[in-house]
Amino acid sequence: MSTVDKPRSKIQCGSWELRETSLAAGEEIPVNETLFSLSNGVIGLRGFTEESEHVFNYYPGGTDSTTGCESRSSNISNGGRSTKTSHPAKVDNVYVDSELRIPEKSLRGTFFAGFYERRLLNRSRIFSVGLCTKECFLVKAPDAFCIDVFIAGEHVNSSSGRFFSQTRKLDLRTGEMRRRVLWESHSGKELAIECTRIVSSVRKNIAAVKYTITARNVNNTDIRIVSRTDTSDGRMGGFYDVENVFTSSDIQEATSGVFVRTRNSCRHLGVVVAERCSSFQSVEQNRSFEGAVSLDKSNTSINEESTHLSTPLANNSSNFPLSPVVTARSTTFLSPKCVEVDSGVETTFTSCISEKTCIELEKYVGLFGDESAQQEDLTDLALQKTRMAAKDGWVVLVEEHRRKMNAFWSVANVHLKGIASLQGAIRFNMLELKAAYNRSSCFAYPTHGLTGEMLGGLQQWEVDAFITPYMSHIHPESASALLRFRIKTLNYAKEIAADLDLPRGALWPHRTLDGSDNPSTHCAAFLFMNTVVAYALHQYVIITNDNNILLEGGAELLLTTALVYIEWGTWDGGVFHIRSVSGPDIYNGVVDNNFFTNVMAQHHLRWTLQIAGSLRENNPDQWAQLLAKCNMTEEDLTHMEKAAQQMFLLFDGKHRVYPVDQAFMSKKKWNLHDLRDKTKKNLIAEFHPNVIYRHQVCHIPDVLLVMTMLPTKFTMDEVKTNLHFYEPKTAVDSPLCHAIFAILYAAIGQTDEATKHFRRGLLVDVQNSAGNTGGGFHLSTAAASWQALVHGFGGMRVLHGVLHFNPTLPDNITEYEFNARHRGCLVRVSVTQKLVIYNLVDSPRGVEQLLISHKQGQRILLQKDKPESVRLFHDARVLDFDAIIFELDSIVDNIESIHYCAWKETLEEYFKMTEFTLTKELYLAYLSHGKPFAGLNEIFKKYNKPVLPTGDNDDGEETKTLYGLCQAKLEKFRAKVKRDGLKFREGAFKFLSHLRQSDICVGCVSGSRNGKWLVKESPQLNMSVDKFLDNLDGEEMMLRWRPETDYFSFCSRSMDCSSKRTIIVLDGIDGFSKSALEKFCMVIDVSENPAEYNLSVPTLKTQSFKDITVTTLDEITTSELTRLGNSAGGLKRKITVPDSFNSASAGDLAESFSLAT
């Protein structure tokens, strides 16, 4: 006889689904229950089976001659020995399987956010200062998803038959779980059970299940469906007491409810069920059993079609069979019998079933909790909402849920092309991140999700470090709720600081559920918690541009938590030290000057000082109130500034790395490679903590962690050296390490290593690589893996307020696409093997453009819904110019008309006693050349007005001097600009963006004293130029405007460029000398009526920038320099030019431009 391996669960991860194609066995049972769990942040429902028995019998092998079913006899390998299986024996009229029992039990559970218990901790010490005296943890809610089926008196479980197939699917697109199981009784009856679950993302307190039964080898056989709400786990565990139970039923529908209250925390929870069961006949033969036996053996096809972010999501992507084919339907509702039992409530439906009969149970479950509400009010609310859901029906509930999910995926979806399992894994991770939180600021974010008991539903530091920044990009409302939870629980943090004898400030707990402290290894030594919460707030403000949160408690949070550093830290030798603290790395205990803590505290202090300065200047009254509320003075801010400047940051010159802490480099070395060969367990499970603390080993390399969180603070050389030093010293007991390594390896260009760790981080839950997925998800790793794609391979950074990207492709990934936010704008980034496409898909009201930077400072001005593309790998080209300098009037369209209107209004007011009109001829003759004093005096003489004295530069507009008159004109000019705005020449900003992408220096000059003011009025222009000079700068440096070109020459030199390699753009060359213009390599004239001229350098006449590119300019300069023997060009420069615009050749330009040489 052949040996058959122990049955294994097969989890297939498709691009839009997670599918299980065989029965789970052993330790896979709780793991798969976690993977197929559902949640909406309020209700968490594990992926257990509805049937009360979770241990299945397996009958692998051939066909039994007596029953026509699979043989009950085979050899099964069990722990190294072969155990012969035989037909199950019948003992006391119950079939007992003697060959295979899976020992592991299901971790069945339903959870409700905020339904937690509190218990006191017994301490042997006589004091409790700085130690937790209680702990909080989530408890299971009453289980309202129990459904048992009895056919001809036989309970559908493994004792009375066998489950020979199960297929289960989690639809990532819709967030629905579907299950199909085939069962055969020992008497030959066959049942197919198809179940669909949904936890509504619209009605947060409602979950529902549709349970469909079909049968074969039956004829008018009695069938009984028992639906239960079970409270036994909570009562027997001593977590809660049942306060009230009620039942109600009519001829079609049953309603029941159980209301419980936790014993210590006094949390109230009501669980209400509205259910109905119907029976109908199908005209066509039931096809549920076709191919059923081979479901777990065949290679089931999974739809791997990837959907891009821009593709609308279909309402129903499922290819999973939900019910038998029905062409006509006559429905009969079964009468319910609802009774109260010892374990809770039972509702029974009884009927007969034949081969063409379908029985369908719809069960609507409402969970409602409130700490302060009266039981009567809670009962009324729960009944009303649950009955309303049941009245609306299954179709309405599903459709509104799917619409909500489509809206979520329109922003959250990530497209990966190349490996279907990675595509599905990242979508699975994002779905679980969404499912864990309900956007309520009342409770913490469960670090391991709302569908498991790992860590008791507590929030740890990883939420602030990774999940809040992720949510800021994908769902800002959730990120805001997470931060407002911190603001709301600030008083708890103040109590913890006071408990540690700190007179002022606040200290966040390492773990929390309601804001209070929970037990940790070293309670209240975690100053780094303050730094990561401040970091989360900083990221949120930058990403969403929501500054209101600072005025609504965020500023108080920053100041109060920053104050702890001053109270805790010490000065030694003029340097600020933070001693006796713990960092994120639990393998290094309590240390002095933890590098992560010090660097992040420095960041916290500096940002706090910026916010304080802004509040002091803009809201002085509110600032004074805030200081009093935080028990601070201005002197404290001075101490903060000094501490930030003199923060102790240790550097090891021998290894050229930053030590984890002050003692790390003096510890013993440990060969982790040998340790991994000896044991597969975590170090903390094998060694005493004091053994670990004596060695150079990291649980999470917090030096590398801070480099991922503050990437602009460290150079690539520093990242590379520290990464290669700390990776061998990291035990990788935390899956979070893979995401950290992936981000940093991608940053230094080691794509192979980055891809390896990126893959491991993505699949940590799907493959249960950490070995504990059965207890819950690793949501911080899921968020960090998204950051590995966006920050690592996408190269996303924020430098000086500008969003930068430096994308690369992971190995075996041919393209990817993601969404990210900056200053409230949603940017879609699509990376292929040749191109990168940026698209501004959403923006705050009134914002239509966003400036971003690609690669090495190549700036792109994004306009809403107008994608811009650049090459991923640029072609190297040789150019004959390094810079282009624009006259301001060549970019701003028809600015002379604004000057004319301002002078006309000013002078006509001055000449109000006489008939005077400033014509365009007078303006052009006397005032259009930038020297108004002489022109004004000529106008006064012409119209017999006394000549005004020159006056002083400080004269106001009411002063009767030339300076006063010019000031009056200036005010009118600026008022008109503010009122009407500036108009720019066609294609100007697109051309400027192209120049920046091509690494060409861009300058701008103006002979007007208004120049800089005008540039500030146009942020697009301000961010598109490297250097700007106006008349005020020219007067200070004694530069000449006309006939010389001193402004252009000085601007070129200030950008470290030669005039011979600079192109100038003018709004007319009138007034400039020929010799001055010939100092440059090319002159472009954009005036309306360009004059005829004959220069020795190339010239181009045009009135639009829309068709000019770097390539065409280079062709013009190159052809002319070749004709002149390259006598004026100097050495050529090799740069990279992205093909982000369609290039036109010099010949093409000749058709639309007047090309003169």
TrEMBL record:
<feature type="domain" description="Glycoside hydrolase family 65 N-terminal">
    <location>
        <begin position="30"/>
        <end position="367"/>
    </location>
</feature>
<dbReference type="InterPro" id="IPR012341">
    <property type="entry name" value="6hp_glycosidase-like_sf"/>
</dbReference>
<dbReference type="InterPro" id="IPR011013">
    <property type="entry name" value="Gal_mutarotase_sf_dom"/>
</dbReference>
<keyword id="KW-0378">Hydrolase</keyword>
<feature type="domain" description="Glycoside hydrolase family 65 central catalytic">
    <location>
        <begin position="427"/>
        <end position="787"/>
    </location>
</feature>
<dbReference type="GO" id="GO:0004555">
    <property type="term" value="F:alpha,alpha-trehalase activity"/>
</dbReference>
<feature type="domain" description="Glycoside hydrolase family 65 C-terminal">
    <location>
        <begin position="796"/>
        <end position="843"/>
    </location>
</feature>
<dbReference type="InterPro" id="IPR005194">
    <property type="entry name" value="Glyco_hydro_65_C"/>
</dbReference>
<dbReference type="Pfam" id="PF03636">
    <property type="entry name" value="Glyco_hydro_65N"/>
</dbReference>
<dbReference type="InterPro" id="IPR023198">
    <property type="entry name" value="PGP-like_dom2"/>
</dbReference>
<dbReference type="GO" id="GO:0005975">
    <property type="term" value="P:carbohydrate metabolic process"/>
</dbReference>
<dbReference type="Pfam" id="PF03633">
    <property type="entry name" value="Glyco_hydro_65C"/>
</dbReference>
<dbReference type="InterPro" id="IPR005196">
    <property type="entry name" value="Glyco_hydro_65_N"/>
</dbReference>
<feature type="compositionally biased region" description="Low complexity">
    <location>
        <begin position="71"/>
        <end position="82"/>
    </location>
</feature>
<dbReference type="InterPro" id="IPR036412">
    <property type="entry name" value="HAD-like_sf"/>
</dbReference>
<dbReference type="InterPro" id="IPR008928">
    <property type="entry name" value="6-hairpin_glycosidase_sf"/>
</dbReference>
<dbReference type="InterPro" id="IPR023214">
    <property type="entry name" value="HAD_sf"/>
</dbReference>
<protein>
    <submittedName>
        <fullName>Glycosyl hydrolase family 65, N-terminal domain/Glycosyl hydrolase family 65 central catalytic domain/Glycosyl hydrolase family 65, C-terminal domain/Haloacid dehalogenase-like hydrolase, putative</fullName>
    </submittedName>
</protein>
<dbReference type="Pfam" id="PF03632">
    <property type="entry name" value="Glyco_hydro_65m"/>
</dbReference>
<dbReference type="InterPro" id="IPR037018">
    <property type="entry name" value="GH65_N"/>
</dbReference>
<dbReference type="GO" id="GO:0030246">
    <property type="term" value="F:carbohydrate binding"/>
</dbReference>
<feature type="region of interest" description="Disordered">
    <location>
        <begin position="66"/>
        <end position="86"/>
    </location>
</feature>
<dbReference type="InterPro" id="IPR005195">
    <property type="entry name" value="Glyco_hydro_65_M"/>
</dbReference>
<comment type="similarity">
    <text>Belongs to the glycosyl hydrolase 65 family.</text>
</comment>
